[in-house]
From TrEMBL:
Protein family (similarity comment): Belongs to the GcvT family.
Domain named FAD dependent oxidoreductase: residues: 6-362
Protein name (database record): GcvT family protein
Domain GCVT N-terminal: 423-698
Residue ranges annotated for the FAD dependent oxidoreductase central domain, each copy included: 369-421
Pfam families: DAO (PF01266), FAO_M (PF16350), GCV_T (PF01571), GCV_T_C (PF08669)
Amino acid sequence: MTVPSVVIIGAGVVGAALADELSARGWTDVTVVDQGDVPATGGSSSHAPGLVFQINGSKTMTEMARYTVEKFVELDSFHQVGGLEVATTPKRLAELHRRHGWATAWGIETHLLTPEECAARHSLLDAGKVLGGLHIPTDGLAKAVKAVDAQLTRARERGVRVLARHEVLDVRTEGGRVAAVVTDQGEIPADIVVCCAGIWGPRVARMVGMNLPLTPLAHQLAWTGQVPGLAGQTVECSRPILRHQDADLYFRERFDTLGIGYYGHRPMPISADDILSVDEAEVMPSVLTFTPDDFAEAWSETQELLPSTRSAKVEEGINGLFSFTTDHLPLMGESPDVKGFWVAEAVWVTHSAGVGRAMAEWLVDGHCTTFDLHECDVNRFEPHQVAPDYVLARGCQNYVEVYDIIHPLQPMREPRPLRTSPFHPRQQELSAAFLEASGWERPQWYAANAPLLSGRDIPTPGDWAARYWSPIVGAEAQATREGVAMYDMTALKRLEVSGPGAVAFLQRLTTGDVDKSIGSVTYCLLLDHDGGIRSDVTVARLGAQEFQVGANGNLDLDWMERHRPADVFVRDITAGTCCVGVWGPKARDLVQPLTDIDLTALRYFRGARGYIGNVPVTMLRLSYVGELGWEIYTTSDMGLKLWDTLWEAGRDHGVIAAGRGAFTSLRLEKGYRSFGTDMTFEHDPYEAGLGFAVKLDKGDFIGREALLARKESVTRRLTCLLTDEVVMGKEPVYDGERPVGYVTSAAYGYTIGKGVAYAWLPASLADPGQAVQIGYFDRRVDAVVAEEPLFDPAMTRLRG
Ligand SMILES: Cc1cc2nc3c(=O)[nH]c(=O)nc-3n(C[C@H](O)[C@H](O)[C@H](O)COP(=O)(O)OP(=O)(O)OC[C@H]3O[C@@H](n4cnc5c(N)ncnc54)[C@H](O)[C@@H]3O)c2cc1C
C-alpha cells in the first residue's frame, strides 16, 4: 500500500497525539479536522485539569501513562510535581499497598509514606487525618491544551493539515470502505478515518453505522479562591497532585488556589446527541453548568483533609463532560463492518500519548508492538455489551466506582442476570454462588456441597483471598480428583468454522496442524504478525470442512472474520449451545452407560458425535482440570436434559457439580495457561511455555516468520511458583530487593497442598529451586520456582 490518506476527526489530546505519531512514522497525508478552534477546541481536553496518576491495575494502561509522561515532559507540557494518594481508612491503606505492588510490577517507582511524610510532601494535609500515602515521583500535571498545540505544531511541520472550524457531518463509504469525510465546508477524501471525537464519538461512529459503547458523563471540577496555605505562591504548582480516594476526591494547585475534582456525586450521563454545538454552548460544548448541591459533601470532605481550605471559598466550578466505557478501558481499533474506519475513544489525558503511539503503530505496521492492546480493542465486546441500556448502566456504575477498591473477582452488580446457561435452574437448586463472566452467570462454588467439607482440612486463605471464596471450593477441587464432577463450561466461546476453504484458513491462522483426521482435536495458538499470542484455541475437526473452535472471546471471532476468505464461514455458536465438563477418575463409569460412543476408544484429544440418552452431543476428550473426561456439548434446548441425564446417572457415582473456584485451582496444578491473564499479545509461545503448540514445519502461518527470530531470544519465562500463602495475581516478584517480574494467575492447589502462582520472570531466574519473593500488600511471601506441571506430569490421569 502506498501511504494512505488519513483524516483524524477531533483535535483533542488524542487526535493531536495520533497526528504527531503518524507523521513521525512518515504518514504525512494526514488531515485533522475539528469543529472548534484549535488548540482549545471546546472538547474535554480544553478544560481537563490534567492530573496524571500513572498507576493502574492494567499493565497496558500504566505503560501508556508512562509514555505520555515521558512525551509531555519532552514537549514541555508537564509539571512533574509527583503524585500522592492518601489513605484515611485501613482498607484504603491496604489498597495503597496493593497499588504500590502494581506500580512495582509494571516498573514505576513508588514509595509508601507515613502520615508525617505525607504532610511533609503536601503541606496542606492534616497529618492526623491520614493513615499513610503512596508517593509517585514521576506523576504530575499535564498541560493538555499546550500538549495539543505542541503535537499539532510538530505534525504540521511534517506536512499534516489541521482544519479548525470544520464540522464533520458524515463519513462517506464505498463498497464497505471509507471514502471521504463530509464536512460543513466540503468533502475530504480518505483511505482511513480515525474517530478521536471524544464524547461525540457515538455520534460520529453512527455515521458509518457503528455502535460505539461509550457514555459521556458530567464530572464536577471546582476551583477555590485563595487558600491561605498557598498564599504568595507564584508558580502554578509545587506540591504533588493529590488523591483522597476514600472521599472520591482529587486536588491540584493553581498558583494560590486549588482545583478539586469529585467522583462522589450522582452519575450525570448525557447523550452524545444532546451536546451543544460550539456556537450554542455558553462556555464550551463539553462544559455544563455547575450544580453546587452535588458538590456539598466534596467541599466538607476537602475542609476536613486540608484545614487551610476552611477559610477559602469555592469560587467557580463546572460539570465537565468526558467518556466512560463499560469496563473502564478505552475503545481502540477498526470497525468490524466498515474498512478504514478506526476509533481511538474514551481516553484520558493520562494515556493520550500512549494511545496515539499505539494507534499509529497499529495503522502503519498492522499491529502494535509497544503495548498489549487486547483489553482496549473496540471489538472485544459481546453483543449484549453494546446494548444501549447496558452501556449506560455500566458507564454510570463505573463513574461511581472510579476510586472504589475492587476485588479481582468482584462481579458487576447490575445488570444481572443477563446470560444463563440451560443448567442455571439446577445450579440455583444447588445454591450456587454465582459470579459473572462475559455476562454469563457462572457458579464459583455450590453451597449444596457443604457436606463435602466433612473430614477435609481446607486451609483458609488471608482476608483478601478469602473474598468470593468458600472452603467448599477446596472440597470441590479434591472431590473432582477423587470421583467425578460436572463443570458448566458454557461461558467458553465456541466458533464454528466451515466451508471449502476451512482447512487452509485454519492452517494459515493457527500454529497447529489441524489438517488431521475427522475427530482430531488440536491445541494451538492464534498469533499476530509479530509472533505475539492473540489467543489459545482448541480446534476440533468434526467434518471434512467443519471445525469447532474453542476460543477465548470476541476478539478471536473478529480476527477470524478479518482474515476469512469468501469460501469460509465463521459463526459464533456460543449462545445457541452449551457445554458441561464431566471430569474425574469416575467420569467414564458415569458417562459410558449413557452413550453410544465408545469412550475407551475415544482417545485423549479426540472428539466424536453421538448421544447421551436422548440428547445429541459432541464430546471432546479434553480437560483443563487434568482428569479423565469430556467436554460435552449440545444445543441450548437440550441442555437441561443433558444435565439431568448426567446428574441422575451420576448419583450412583457420587457426582457433584463444581464451580470455577475449583476449576482454577485444578488448572494451575496442571499448568494450563489462561489467555489474557497468563499470556497476552505481548508474549510469544516460547516464553509462555507453549512452544509445543507451534508446528513450525507445517508450512506458513501468520506470525511464523517473526517467531523464528523470537524463538532464539527468550529472555523471560512464564514460571510456576510454589508459595505458602495464596496471592491473587498482578503482584510484583522480587529477587532480594530487586523487582524482577509479576504474578499472573494464582490459587491454592488443594491436591498438592501448596499455593500456586504463575509469574513472568527473567529466564535467568526461572529454573526450578530458585527462591524469590512475592510482594503481597505490606508483606513478602516466600516462593520457589517449581518444575511443572505440579500434578500428574506423566499424564496418566488424562490418558487413563
Ligand atoms: C472535569 C474533567 C476533569 C478531567 N480531569 C482529568 C485529569 O485530571 N486527568 C486526565 O487524564 N483526564 C481528565 N479528564 C478526562 C480528559 O479530559 C478526557 O478524557 C480527554 O481530554 C479526552 O480527549 P479526546 O481527545 O478524546 O477528546 P476531546 O478533547 O473532547 O476532543 C474531541 C474533539 O473532537 C471534536 N469533534 C467531535 N465531533 C466532531 C465533528 N462532528 N466534527 C469535527 N470535530 C468534532 C471536538 O470538537 C473535540 O475537539 C477530565 C475530564 C473532565 C471533564
